[in-house]
Amino acid sequence: MQEIKSGTAKFLGVRLRQWRKSLPLKSYQLAKLIRISQGSLSDIENCKSLPSADTIAKLYQHTNLNIIWLLTGKGPIRKTQHAPGEEPAVNEELEAYGEDPNLTELIQRLIRTYYRGDAEKKAHLIGFLIGADPGE
Predict the structure, then answer these.
(1) What is the DSSP letter of 87?
(2) What are residue 29's phi and psi, to 5 degrees?
(3) Residue 97, pLDDT score
(4) What is the mean pLDDT of the chain?
(5) Mean per-residue pLDDT for 71-96?
(6) Do the Cβ atoms of 65 and 77 come closer than 8 Å?
(7) How far is CA 43 from the centre of its chain?
(8) Domains in the chain, ordered, with CATH?
(9) DSSP 3-state assignment of 116?
(10) Distance in angstroms (rounded) separating the CA atoms of residues 54 and 57
(11) Alpha-carbon distance 101 to 110, whole Å?
(12) What is the pLDDT of residues 33-63, one digit of tens each?
């Protein structure tokens, strides 16, 4: 592998690591979340390779990382809003519970069910959450 030596991509890996550590999220957790190997993530963060278009798409779909910031270093580090009808990314506060990698996956399923499920599934989900909520 050849190290990236020029252009805005030169610092892409550094920015990705900076964002990940700000959550805090361990590299193996992010790799699992976006379904790439930990070695591939390490190569990206160490500026030994660039992420594929598929990896960038997964970062966009499964995180709150602002892809424009990742690619250029310009703008906010995190997405500010999601488009109407678009599923929001798992927010950083919930990802911070990442010591249990299953929690992030469960939260993603909850979001998917809420946004993509039919009315009956949404009603079951809402009823369960209201009944199961221990309160503050």
Answers:
(1) P
(2) -70, -45
(3) 47
(4) 79
(5) 65
(6) yes
(7) 18
(8) 8-132 (1.10.260)
(9) helix
(10) 5
(11) 15
(12) 999 999 999 999 999 999 999 999 999 888 8
DSSP one-letter code for 99: T
Write out the two tokens for 44: 């990206």
Task: Please state, as a whole number, how many other Cβ atoms lie within 10 Å of the Cβ of residue 104.
Answer: 22
Q: One-letter amino acid identity for 100?
A: D
Contact 51, 59 (CB under 8 A): yes
How many CB atoms sit inside 10 A of residue 75's CB? Answer: 14
Q: What's phi and psi for 25, nearest 5 deg?
A: -135, 130
> Is residue 82 very low, low, confident or very high in pLDDT (cuts 50, 70, 90)?
low
Q: Which amino acid is at 101?
A: P
Name the residue type at position 39: G
Dihedral (CA of 81, 18, 43, 92) sign: negative
Mean pLDDT of 87-102: 54
Alpha helices, H only, the chain: 12-22, 27-34, 38-45, 53-62, 67-72, 92-95, 101-116, 119-132
CA distance 88 to 37: 24
Cα 128 vs. chain centroid, distance in angstroms?
A: 26
